[in-house]
Amino acid sequence: MGAKRKKSESETMEDYDDDVVLDKKEKKKMKQMEKEKKKEILPSMIKNKEKRSAVHAKLKLQKKVEKRKKLKARDAEEKRALELGEEPPPRKIPRTIENTREFDETVCKPDDELFAGNDADEFSSVLKRERIPKILITTSRFNSTRGPAFISELLEVIPNAHYYKRGTYDLKKIVEYAKKQDFTSLIVVHTNRREPDALLIIGLPDGPTAHFKLSRLVLRKDIKANVLSLLRCIACRIMEIPTSHEPELVLTNFTTHLGHRIGRLIQSLFPQEPNFRGRRVVTFHNQRDYIFFRHHRYIFETKESKQGDSKGKNRKDGKGEKNTQQKVIARLQECGPRFTLKLRSLQHETFDTKGGEYEWVHKPEMDTSRRRFFM
Amino acid sequence: MPRTTTLECPGCPPLRALTFDSLGLIKVIESRVPQVVERWGDPDPSKCVLAASIDDRKKDPLLAVARKNGEVEAVNPLNGEIHAVFSNVGEDGVQPEDDAISGLHLFRRERPSGKALHASISVTKTWKVCGSGNVLCSKVDGSENYAVFGGKGVEVNLWDLEDCTKIWTAKPPPKNSLGIFTPSWFTCTTFQSNDDHRKFVADTNSHQVHLYDISAQRRPVLSFDFRETAIKVVTEDQDGHTLYIGNGSGDLASFDMRTGTCIYFD
User: Fold this and answer.
1) B250 and B137: one domain?
2) Do B156 and B266 belong together in one domain?
3) ipTM score
4) What is the domain range of residue B43?
5) E strands of chain B, at which residues?
6) B22, B228, B249, B266, best to mutate vs chain A, most A CBs in 10 Å
7) Span A90-138, pLDDT tens digits
8) Which residues on chain B are in Cβ contact (under 8 Å) with A206?
9) Whole-prediction pTM value?
10) Which InterPro entries match (chain B) (predicted)?
11) Measured between alpha carbons, how far is B122 from B114 in angstroms, rounded to an integer?
């Protein structure tokens, strides 16, 4: 024990020797830095909740004020540069989770393998317009409250969709029945605690089975309620039941092979001849593995925008010489339900959880980082 | 699938893997810099690869590939050259699409009853393995005298290839305690080691692994469950008692067959 103590003492003596080598000025700087660090008390170090929350609020306010100052300064510089005729300094790109997404090798590249795969997969007959999509919608065995409302709205969104009550049939038997009746897809809306919470899309005859988690469902009557309270003009007449024109389909951000396959699955639900005059659009937007469903009607409007307000005011000639620019913009009005889907599993054949082969299953061990997405 | 990590293994010999896909392409992947090194064939869904077998000898190795349109090709695995192509339309006129090939084995040595040459292989004998049901899996043992077949509704059989006779059949499992009888559905089989033709493993659609010993009894000697989905593939290790199993939801595990314990699980 004694020997150990001696060694530790000798080590500390060596440290002191090193210190002596440092300049005296540097030592002073180091001491000042340490003092400053000690002065900055982090809110998390304060044990008293009231004081801690007060300090935290103050810090937040400081940060907010600083950020506003920075933004104002940046805008002022840009304006000045524009007036002077110089190029404004380039805006910095914010770092987002989508920007810093982990590299994925399965991102689709437009090569002949992809196109050959597209020709060979289960949806090619529908997407090449050889078969007209015919959808069978049904529910889980217990269905109540929001379920039927959601289904009636789905029936309006998806053309050529038929609803059948579930009864007590086995899902595998329903799949066979649908095959006989020449349906191209089967959608099962699963309800849990009186709220639709899962969607099962089965392609027929041998198509893949996609199991989605459904969340954030907003029915049409709830959307209408929000907007009606804001609108005062007669234009609110536009927001009625959507027409039965074939909708246009917008699928964005399905980049990987899995995403591409899911995109084609969704595409095969809708008819391939959109009626552009109907001005109806259905959007499936994929972001961070969540698919957002929106249903809009749009109108084209011409908007007159004045050019250079300050110059117009100074002119004494009058209003006749104002420079007006005609811009055509599209105004969107949301109709129909709004919900979010997240893919839980994709199975290669029709519904068979026990014996089937899964193409993709979400397991919690796959969520290794916040910047890793699969679709 | 969990994130793939790259580890530097300086002592590990470079791996070369051949993969086949449903568009009929054969891709060669090397592990030095993990990437696809070569790609043979054109994407053609009718040429979907159903089964493959390799004879990895030092001189003139050969790879046999069975495709969906009934063709069996003999390919050189080093450069992708096709040596020969055979058509497998059955004698009774069954179309290849209805009667898809489910297993393929490339014989290494010449057989006295058949005429197997280096570069060309001719089909000499065909026989019916089972009366009804689908044969889903087959495996030929190391000495190439015996073959085991199994399938949906087809119990595991062991055939002697010299005489083309069935020498052993497994007995269906006993009834459940509830009285429910699940018909057997074997999805993959393999012999436990290259030398011993008596022990083999068969995996079922109901996530069970059975080890059979023909010298002991007709029911499985050892059987255990593996997760919840059907087991799709099984293969043996060279040491004779380790087994690698893969199932339908992407889980991989290795088991020690002497005890039935799981060594590694992914």
Assistant:
1) yes
2) yes
3) 0.76
4) 14-108
5) 16-20, 26-30, 35-40, 49-55, 62-67, 71-75, 82-87, 134-140, 146-152, 154-160, 165-169, 186-191, 199-204, 208-213, 222-225, 231-236, 242-247, 252-256, 261-265
6) B249
7) 888 889 998 888 888 888 888 878 888 888 888 888 888 888 899 999 9
8) none
9) 0.77
10) Quinoprotein_ADH-like_sf (IPR011047), WD40/YVTN_repeat-like_dom_sf (IPR015943), WDR74/Nsa1 (IPR037379)
11) 8
